[in-house]
Each structure stands twice: as structure tokens, then as C-alpha cells.
Amino acid sequence: MKKQALHITSVFIKTFITSMLLLATLAVTAAHAQSKISIKVKVPFKFMVSDRAFTAGYYSVSSSGDHLTIQDAAGRSIFTGLANQVSGRHVAETGQVVFHCYGDHCFLSEFWTPTRDNGSRVLPSRYERELAKLGKGTEFAVLNQR
């Protein structure tokens, strides 16, 4: 009788712990999904992100945690990559996508939403670092297209 009661208690505790872990995972996932904010921009020039090249056009840029996602005008995800959290820029109600340009080579560098204090910075590619060593770049910000 004692072994059976111990077994039932053990099963109950395992079930309870599993249920709590599942609820915590769902809560974190829901909060993570809600924190994803995107802005739509018209980029008037060709640009690169990491080692991928993109044409001028309409894009939707979003970040969630340490990931940056770019979608084309049709809503297809065309890039997902790692980004670091950064602070120090206030973008008011617009949001910004910031590019670093070296001559006619532009690289997506940062993403800032209007509702967060922090932005996301894409790690520069090897090619961007090489161009940066050769000369001073220009920073160009594209604002949210509402």
C-alpha cells in the first residue's frame, strides 16, 4: 500500500512539473511572438545583408530577440540572421532601418522600431569590414512607410 501511494504521488508530481514547464514555455513563446515588431520601408538602392545582395524595393524588416528578418513586398521571408541589441538612438514615431554605404555599396546595419528603446545591429560582413578599412562610409536611414 505504501509503495502504491508513493508511486501515485511520484506520478502526480511529474505530471504537475511537466504541466508547469509546458505553461511556462507557452507563456514565453507568446511573449516572444508579441514582441516581434516590423516596419515597412522603401529602400531606394541595392544593398547587402551579410553576404546576400538585394535590389531596391519595398521590404518589411522585423526583429525578435537576437534575430533580424527581412521580407520582400510579397511577404516572403528572404533573410533571417543574427543581430545584437544596441541602444543610443531615439527614432520617435517612425522607426528606422539604417544602412552604411561605402561608395555605391550599401549594407543594412541597424533596425530601430518606434516602440522600443533598443535597436538591433547586424554584424558586418567581411566585405563590409574590408570596404570600411578603405575609406569613410556614409550612414543612411530609411524611415517606416506607414
For the secondary structure, the number of strands is 10
Residue share in β-strands: 35-45%
How are strands sequenced across the largest beta sheet? 1-4-5-6-9-8-7-10
CA radius of gyration: 22 Å
Low-confidence stretches: 19-34
Secondary-structure content class: alpha+beta
Give the overall shape, derived from the CA principal axes.
Answer: globular
Give average pLDDT, whole number: 78
Order of helices and strands: HEEEEEEEEEHE
Biggest sheet features: 8 strands, antiparallel
Q: What gap, in angstroms, lies between the N and C termini? A: 69 Å
Number of helices: 2
Plain-language structure description:
By secondary structure, the protein is an alpha+beta fold. It folds into two domains: 1-34; 37-143, no CATH class. 29% of the residues lie in helices and 42% in strands. It has helices at 2-34, 126-134; strands at residues 37-43, 47-49, 52-54, 57-64, 67-71, 77-86, 96-102, 105-112, 119-122, 138-143. Strands 1-4-5-6-9-8-7-10 form an eight-stranded antiparallel sheet. It has a two-stranded antiparallel ribbon with strand order 2-3. β7 and β8 (105-112) form a beta hairpin. The protein is globular, with a radius of gyration of 22 Å. 20% of the residues are buried. Residues 19-34 have low confidence and may be disordered.
Write the layout of secondary structure elements.
Blueprint: H1 2-34, E1 37-43, E2 47-49, E3 52-54, E4 57-64, E5 67-71, E6 77-86, E7 96-102, E8 105-112, E9 119-122, H2 126-134, E10 138-143
Antiparallel strand pairs: 1-4, 2-3, 4-5, 5-6, 6-9, 7-8, 7-10, 8-9
Give keywords.
8-stranded antiparallel sheet; alpha+beta; two-stranded antiparallel sheet; 42% strand; 146 residues
